[in-house]
């Protein structure tokens, strides 16, 4: 063992450069992983302390006991409580103070006329609570609102909108309200609660604009007197509360709020990043394995000599593994440090780009320390295991043989096994997609397909390189021809090098194809079910924005250019016990602007006790026109509705439709999400849109979009997601490039004498450089082509499986332009990877290369 | 081709006062110590000398593979000292041929492609050369092996391909560095015969470094090197005469 360690130490010293690529691959993967874990923990801890601080003064929260949660929503909708319950609460012994907390959506318009925020995080408006202990916001500047129209804004929002104390602007609730900023506030010592915008108004204003009627509040915040614990306070409050209203401790409420952000958002965010560090590490595995395989092949004679001199198999294997361990440990440790550095850098960077990152020390938990280290070491050692075993198997006689170059091709077994595996993968996938739709089957098939691609790589590489490289002979003459043949020399090595890039490109194309398919689906949905001419929507995304004024549809309908204008609002109720979203609208007008497919019954007279249901939901409930179903609203009222119509397709119109009159008694803050408009006969779209825009200007300037624009903006979030995904995948592609560069450097080293000969008989330096670069491009082209095919296939599987698994039909689309860009990037990346090895090859000393040993 | 009288008076390659020093200070080695020699065109010249006499260094410097510490080297009328790496490379490609002791062929190229490699690197390989290449292939006798890879040939066959490649570009001079060093005597004889025949039949010039008197006997003239200096010349050498001359080096007088 001692000998093995000494051998590997001297070998590492001698070939430091060879392991630079391996080191970098492990380093980058581990750094990404560690950075993700540390940042997740740090954010979680920061949010914990921020919510803890902000809610420290609230000892109990009185609120409605039930929440209705619709599918796909993290936070349920709670019924409001009566604001005058505050007086009852105040009289309970041990209560020092109580205040109603009214909350709704309110989007401020900045100094430039553009709405602030609304692209994800909520835009919150509420009453400014005068008791400073109960109010999570603190006045940092100015004063509290005292009369109607005065507001306090959190400082971060004011800065983003260019607003200062004394400025007048508009608050969309969604009806535009003219407000004057009289104060700026902070949350838990920061400029705001992450990117959430907050506007605090007088209680009277809040009741007027944010609730359906006066006297309601989202909850009542209670502060305990001296010596009363939170639990005691809750116990004392419970008896005085009416049925359906509960009291929870302030701590519990803070934890719930925190859970909403860190539990839902942070966990998802962290998982997302972990998946990409997984991809990066998978790619790294190929690069590392390849490096060790080549190094072992190049060292065949050296290892054979050791074996001839009496070293045991185990000693030779151990020496190689010790080398791998040394690289693994140093690279993982460096990666860990790098990851922590990245997290620290982001913590410093976030505030600079206007994203308040809560202060606090970096949290480096034991998992964030041990997991990346363990993964780095396992990946590195695992990748080196096979080459190390092969090194041990070196026959002592190999010391006498001339060739030390691994020129192993594709074996017949491999071709048969790979083809069998590919067939199996295809069969399982197709079964999972077409025969019995199952995401699990499709997923298994997809993973098998990936494995089959990797196994078949060496078999395919010869043919692929020959085809891909055939234009090179004509294009670059003997230089191109030499490059092509060099890439063909060791199909196994070419395939292993290309596999890393193939996986990277496959994941990129998978997302590209899936994104394009989602867009195509959205486009098809709009063109199929939206029969209107223009759509008015508030430009928002996620939980932000305040929607459209419910009066906008009526105002637009009065235009002479307009035939029908229908507003779609959103309500929630439990239908037969399950939370569901309701579309609140004028059903008659709805039919004129949306294609609802085949309708059983009629939507013409739903009245206050009628409901229309999409066919899938009707089947689930087992109802048809004429039957009744029970709806429970957030105010606790349960009411029987008669199913008057069952319609065939929903997509944009929602699964349940009720009238505004039926919703009115249960409404909270009124807002429409969309106003669909059809023009009168003979009205030009542009002219009509301009007329609608003029009306919309009075209602907070929402966007008026043609059908095409509406479809495009509906898909806007997809581009944002894709950009993020591409940024994250750049790392995997970078690691793949390092792998190509490393293989080429080793190959150049291996071919020293041949390159010397070429230079001696007249190959110029630039021809030599071109030869190495073209070889790199060819390997990259093979990886890119494989990745594109695999990615497109996996994209199709994903789309088809989603199509089978969900109600809405998915469209599959192959975006030619984006995929062409992916292909070009892959080729350019190959050229880039070849630059350094090419330069090293060109620096070669001709004389030393041709001088005989 | 031209008449022997004109080619014999012209020099294909020459070095004047060539000095080559490796290393510096105490460890400096003078591999060449003021050598002046002319290799006349249309002749087969052998450079002989014991190990460390500087014969390989002389060849490398005369061929533009290495640079002199002082003095000058010429290929035809071109002085090599004034050329940058690119011009030197182009000169080697267009005007010089090489046959090394081993590893003479590019393993990924076929025999035919190896032969035309310098022409292909120049981007030409056009019509007028085709006839010449065709004749060369017959001279080296490898017509039935043109589509083979080097790994499928014997050592002697590989060296014959290397000879064909060296002459393919009709160079001013072909340098051969121990071309028979790795071959058995029969194959070596074939390669030497080939070099000699090519010089005599086509008027080309060959400069060969060797330590084998039998090989040197194939040359028109032998120049002897010892301790980095030119010590003797011998016209129309025989193996015995060369061997006798070489023995003289071993017993310092």
Automatic annotation (TrEMBL), chain A:
Its main location: membrane. Keywords: Cell membrane, Membrane, Transmembrane, Transmembrane helix. It is found in: Cell membrane. One of its GO terms (cellular component) is plasma membrane. GO terms for molecular function: transmembrane transporter activity. InterPro entries: ABC3_permease_C, MacB_PCD, Macrolide_Exporter_MacB. The chain crosses the membrane at residues 268-297, 318-349, 369-389, 421-440, 446-468, 494-518, 724-748, 777-798, 810-835. It is a multi-pass membrane protein. Pfam families: FtsX (PF02687), MacB_PCD (PF12704). Residues 275-395, 727-845 form the ABC3 transporter permease C-terminal domain. Belongs to the ABC-4 integral membrane protein family. This is ABC transport system permease protein.
TrEMBL record, chain B:
Keywords: ATP-binding, Nucleotide-binding, Transport. InterPro entries: AAA+_ATPase, ABC_transporter-like_ATP-bd, ABC_transporter-like_CS, ABC_transpr_LolD-like, MacB-like_ATP-bd, P-loop_NTPase. One of its GO terms (cellular component) is membrane protein complex. One of its GO terms (molecular function) is transmembrane transporter activity. SMART domains: AAA (SM00382). The keyword ATP-binding applies. The keyword ATP-binding applies. It comes from the Bacteria. Signal peptide: none annotated. Residues 13-252 form the ABC transporter domain. This is ABC transport system ATP-binding protein.
């Amino acid at each position: 063992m001692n000998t093995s360690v000494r051998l590997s130490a001297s070998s590492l010293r001698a070939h430091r450069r060879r392991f630079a690529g391996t080191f970098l691959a492990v380093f980058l993967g581990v750094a990404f992983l560690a950075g993700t874990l540390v940042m997740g923990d740090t954010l979680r801890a920061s949010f914990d302390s921020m919510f803890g601080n902000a809610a420290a003064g609230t000892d109990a929260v009185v609120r409605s006991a039930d929440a209705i949660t619709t599918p796909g929503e993290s936070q349920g909708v709670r019924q409001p409580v009566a604001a005058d319950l505050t007086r009852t609460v105040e009289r309970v012994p041990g209560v020092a103070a109580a205040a109603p907390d009214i909350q709704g959506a309110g989007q401020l318009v900045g100094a430039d006329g553009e709405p602030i925020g609304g692209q994800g995080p909520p835009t919150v408006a509420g009453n400014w609570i005068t008791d400073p202990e109960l109010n999570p916001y603190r006045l940092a500047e100015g004063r509290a609102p005292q009369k109607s129209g005065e507001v306090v804004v959190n400082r971060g929002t004011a800065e983003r909108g260019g607003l200062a104390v004394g400025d007048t602007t508009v608050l969309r609730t969604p009806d535009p309200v003219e407000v004057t900023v009289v104060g700026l506030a902070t949350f838990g010592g920061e400029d705001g609660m992450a990117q959430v915008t907050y506007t605090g108004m007088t209680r009277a204003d809040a009741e007027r604009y944010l609730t359906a009627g006066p006297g309601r509040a989202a909850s009542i915040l209670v502060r305990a007197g001296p010596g009363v614990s939170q639990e005691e306070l809750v116990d004392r409050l419970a008896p005085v509360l009416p049925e359906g209203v509960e009291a929870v401790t302030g701590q519990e409420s803070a934890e719930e709020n925190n859970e909403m952000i860190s539990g839902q958002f942070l966990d998802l965010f962290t998982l997302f990043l972990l998946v990409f560090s997984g991809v990066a590490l998978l790619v790294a595995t190929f690069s590392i394995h390849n490096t060790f395989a080549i190094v072992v092949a190049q060292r065949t004679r050296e290892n054979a000599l050791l074996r001839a001199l009496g070293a045991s198999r185990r000693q030779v294997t151990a020496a190689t593994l010790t080398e791998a361990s040394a690289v693994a440990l140093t690279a993982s440790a460096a990666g860990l440090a790098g990851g922590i550095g990245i997290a620290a850098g982001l913590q410093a960077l976030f505030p600079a780009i206007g994203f308040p990152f809560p202060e606090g020390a970096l949290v480096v938990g034991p998992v964030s320390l041990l997991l990346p280290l363990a993964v780095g070491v396992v990946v590195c050692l695992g990748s080196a295991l096979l080459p190390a075993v092969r090194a041990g198997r070196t026959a002592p006689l190999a010391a006498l043989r001339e060739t030390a170059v691994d020129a192993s091709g594709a074996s017949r077994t491999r071709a048969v096994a790979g083809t069998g595996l590919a067939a199996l993968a295809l069969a399982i996938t197709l079964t999972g997609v077409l025969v019995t739709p199952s995401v699990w089957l499709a997923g298994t098939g997809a993973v098998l397909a990936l494995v089959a691609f990797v196994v078949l790589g060496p078999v395919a590489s010869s043919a692929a390189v020959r085809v891909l490289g055939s234009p090179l002979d004509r294009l670059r003459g003997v230089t191109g021809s030499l490059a092509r043949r060099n890439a063909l020399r060791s199909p196994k090595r070419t395939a292993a090098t290309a596999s890393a890039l193939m996986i990277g490109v496959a994941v990129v194309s998978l997302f590209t194809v899936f994104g394009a398919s989602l867009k195509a689906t959205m486009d098809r949905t709009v063109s199929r079910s939206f029969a209107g001419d223009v759509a008015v929507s508030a430009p928002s995304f996620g939980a932000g924005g305040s929607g459209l004024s419910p009066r906008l549809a009526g105002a637009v309908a009065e235009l002479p250019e307009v035939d029908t204008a229908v507003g779609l609002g959103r309500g929630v109720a439990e239908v037969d016990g399950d939370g569901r979203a309701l579309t609140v609208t004028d059903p008659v007008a709805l039919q004129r602007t949306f294609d609802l497919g085949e309708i059983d019954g009629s939507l013409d007279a739903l009245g206050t006790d009628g409901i229309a249901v999409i066919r899938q939901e009707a089947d689930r409930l087992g109802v048809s026109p004429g039957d009744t179903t029970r709806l429970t609203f957030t105010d606790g009222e349960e009411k029987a509705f008669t199913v008057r119509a069952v319609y065939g397709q929903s997509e944009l119109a929602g699964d349940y439709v009720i009238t505004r009159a039926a919703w009115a008694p249960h409404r909270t803050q009124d807002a429409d999400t969309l106003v669909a408009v059809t023009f009168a006969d003979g009205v030009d779209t542009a002219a009509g849109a301009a007329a609608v825009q003029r009306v919309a200007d009075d209602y907070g300037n929402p966007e008026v979009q043609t059908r095409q624009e509406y479809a495009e903006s509906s898909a806007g979030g997809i581009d944002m997601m894709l950009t993020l995904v591409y940024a994250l995948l750049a790392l995997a592609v970078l690691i793949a490039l390092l792998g190509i560069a490393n293989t080429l450097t080793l190959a150049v080293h291996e071919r020293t004498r041949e390159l010397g000969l070429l230079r001696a008989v007249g190959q110029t330096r630039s021809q030599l450089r071109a030869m190495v670069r073209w070889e790199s491009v060819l390997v990259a082209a093979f990886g890119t082509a494989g990745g594109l095919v695999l990615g497109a296939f996996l994209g199709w599987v994903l789309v088809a499986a989603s199509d089978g698994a969900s109600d809405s039909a998915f469209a599959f689309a192959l975006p030619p332009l984006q995929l062409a860009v992916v292909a070009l990037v892959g080729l350019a990346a190959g050229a880039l990877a070849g630059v350094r090895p090419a330069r090293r090859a060109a620096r070669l000393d001709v004389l030393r290369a041709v001088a005989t040993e | 081709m031209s008449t022997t009288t004109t080619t014999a008076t012209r020099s294909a390659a020459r070095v004047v006062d060539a000095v080559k020093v490796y290393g510096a200070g105490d460890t400096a080695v003078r591999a060449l110590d003021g050598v002046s020699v002319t290799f006349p065109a249309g002749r087969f010249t052998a450079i002989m000398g014991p190990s460390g006499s500087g014969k390989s260094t002389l060849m490398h410097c005369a061929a533009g593979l290495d640079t002199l510490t002082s003095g000058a080297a010429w290929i035809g009328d071109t002085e090599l000292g004034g050329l940058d790496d690119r011009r030197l490379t182009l000169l080697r490609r267009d005007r010089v041929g090489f046959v090394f002791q081993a590893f003479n062929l590019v393993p990924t190229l076929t025999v035919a492609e190896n032969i035309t490699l310098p022409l292909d690197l120049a981007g030409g390989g056009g019509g007028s050369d085709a006839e010449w290449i065709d004749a060369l292939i017959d001279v080296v006798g490898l017509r039935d092996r043109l589509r083979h890879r080097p790994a499928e040939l014997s050592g002697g066959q590989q060296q014959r391909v290397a000879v064909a490649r060296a002459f393919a570009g009709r160079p001013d001079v072909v340098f051969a560095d121990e071309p028979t060093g790795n071959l058995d005597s029969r194959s070596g004889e074939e390669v030497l015969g080939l070099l000699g025949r090519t010089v005599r039949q086509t008027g080309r010039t060959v400069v060969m470094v060797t330590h084998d008197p039998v090989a040197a006997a194939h040359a028109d003239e032998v120049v002897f090197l010892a301790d980095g200096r030119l010590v003797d010349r011998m016209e129309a050498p025989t193996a015995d005469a060369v061997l006798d001359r070489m023995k003289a080096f071993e017993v310092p007088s």
